[in-house]
Amino acid sequence: MKIFQVLLRRTYMPNGHIHRGKQKLIKEPTIKDIQKLKNQFAIEEENMFYLRHPYLTAEQSYGHAHALGRQEERMKRLLAVKKDFKENVTIESRLGHLRHKESWD
Known about the structure:
Blueprint: H1 2-7, H2 31-52, H3 58-61, H4 64-68, H5 70-81, H6 91-95
């Protein structure tokens, strides 16, 4: 039985666990992997360029939120959330949709 295991053993596999240890199986990088990495670096460099040189200057971007009215919208939402009392809720208002067919009345 042992001779059978020795003869049919896959010789390209490392001893032990294939992802850990000193005899782990390491995948060699291909041309496709290197090209993908170069493309990712190029995209990252382009993004960093746009972050270093924005479309608007600091003076142009100042006050754009005020012109859009975002501060007023935010204050309205904040005041709506911070009400002292909530609106009155009744069982009839919650379960009114169940009364559409009352033939026994």
